[in-house]
Amino acid sequence: MTTVNLLDFDLEGLAAFCEKLGEKKFRATQLFRWIHQRGASDFTQMTDLAKSLREKLATTARVEALPVVTQHESKDGTIKWLFDVGDGNAVEAVFIPEDDRGTLCVSSQAGCAVGCRFCSTGHQGFSRNLNTGEIVAQLWFAEHLLRKHLKRNERVISNVVMMGMGEPLQNYSALVPALRTMLDDNAYGLSRRRVTVSTSGVVPMIDRLGTDCAVAMAVSLHAPNDALRDDLVPLNRKYPIAELLEACKRYLAYAPRDFITFEYCMLDGVNDQPEHARQLIELVRKHDVSCKFNLIPFNPFPASGLLRSPQPRVLAFAKTLSEAGLVTTVRKTRGDDIDAACGQLAGDVKDRTRAAERMAQRRATESPIVMHPARKTIPQEH
Ligand code: SF4
Questions:
Q1: Closest atom of ligand 1 to CA, residue 119
Q2: What is the 3-state secondary structure (H, E, C) of the chain?
Q3: Ligand 1 pocket, 201 CB below 6 A?
Q4: Residue 304 Cβ contacting ligand 1 at under 6 Å
Q5: Are 364 and 381 in contact (CB under 8 A)?
Q6: Which of 146, 228, 316, 360 sits in a 20 to 30 Å window from 180, CA-based?
Q7: 121 CB under 6 A from ligand 1?
Q8: Is there a catalytic annotation at residue 342?
Q9: How far is CA 377 from the centre of its chain?
Q10: How far, in Å, CA of 35 to CA of 61, rounded?
Q11: pLDDT tens digits, 195-226
Q12: Ligand 1 atom nearest residue 118's Cα
């Protein structure tokens, strides 16, 4: 008999499911706590639920994690899991421990349709959206495994970033119940300020998220003008920078933090020049968006044809932004020894849509972006 995976439900959904079983709504809260707060998957363990409910659950429902394909632990404590989501597809989640927090980077899609040039996931193409249960399962599995591993009863994961594989706002209907489960005090009770959705700029969905489930927002900006961003983040052709920044401004009316984080991957000779920093400053001043910049050292992979900016150039870029009054951080690289940057391992598992080939063709047939001379260090065939 087909059973329902209860990780698919936020509390409201679980209450509706319990009602269908002829149970009172409050039973859903008890069940929700067992699953998410205590990590239980065996209904017989849930001793404060009526025996009749446990029997009904045994025949209609299950709590099922994703099968783990691999687990890699870095010497800096970062752990990366590759999960099997069927049909030869796999997604990743990465746990990044720090002194004052534990962050889990979660995937929302198997592959991604946006096709950013610097992103390994984008080069794999899009396979399918994850459902809510598959998004939540990454947190459920990691949280309870880490508690056991670290022998802790209290919460290990304090922050979630939707920055793994996929564009979360292109999987909106599965994303929102997953976010609600992360925030729910009967489940993980994470602060809205500590759950971040990272988007490449799906403007209409940024507006919807503000009213449906406002959490912290990070935007993958990566370029200070449309010509360059059209090439690096193809979604920009649909939602250009000006529209994106106006959506960010509107989102701030709902956001739990009073700034948007702009992610900016530093690519050698492509977007890391002084004029790019100056254009960024003009851009955020013109649109008057309260923001912070996070400069990300690029993790090179052969198919990208791109290289990491040298550290002195990254620091100079950060200094220019900071001196203009923009709060700017440079992301520490973590888990380099286990390829913990998103998409790096799953890329070896599948490239079913031959997206990398299509991207290479696209670059060959479209007008090239104007490169700074430093770009000549990049192999020309890319
Ligand atoms: S950076 Fe994000 S939106 Fe762009 S291709 Fe990669 S996963 Fe997709």
A1: 6
A2: CCCEEHHHCCHHHHHHHHHHCCCCCHHHHHHHHHHHHCCCCCHHHCCCCCHHHHHHHHHHEECCCCCEEEEEECCCCCEEEEEEEECCEEEEEEEEEECCEEEEECCCEEECCCCCCCCHHHHHCEEEECCHHHHHHHHHHHHHHHHHHHCCCCCCCCEEEECCCCCHHHCHHHHHHHHHHHHCCCCCCCCHHHEEEEECCCHHHHHHHHHHCCCEEEEECCCCCHHHHHHHCHHHHCCCHHHHHHHHHHHCCCCCCCCEEEEEEEECCCCCCHHHHHHHHHHHHHHCCCEEEEEEECCCCHHHCCCECCHHHHHHHHHHHHHCCCEEEECCCCCHHHCCCCCCCHHHHCCCCCHHHHHHHHHHHCCCCCCCHHHHHCCCCC
A3: no
A4: no
A5: no
A6: 146
A7: yes
A8: yes
A9: 31
A10: 12
A11: 999 999 999 999 999 999 999 999 999 999 99
A12: 1
Residue 92 has pLDDT above 90, yes or no: yes
Q: d(Cα 234, Cα 116) in Å, to the nearest integer?
A: 6
Q: Is 200 in the pocket of ligand 1 (CB under 6 A)?
A: yes
Number of the ligand 1 atom closest to the C-alpha atom of 164? 7
* CB of 221 shorter than 6 A to ligand 1: no
The neighbouring-strand residues paired with 80 are: 72, 94
Q: Which residue in 92, 134, 143, 167 is the catalytic one?
A: 92
Under the banding of pLDDT at 50, 70 and 90, the label for residue 367 is very low
Q: Which of 112, 161, 169, 362 to mutate to test the pocket of ligand 1 (most atoms within 8 A of CB)?
A: 112
Q: Is the CB of 234 under 6 A from ligand 1?
A: no
Average pLDDT over residues 247-274: 97
Let me know if 92 is a catalytic residue.
yes
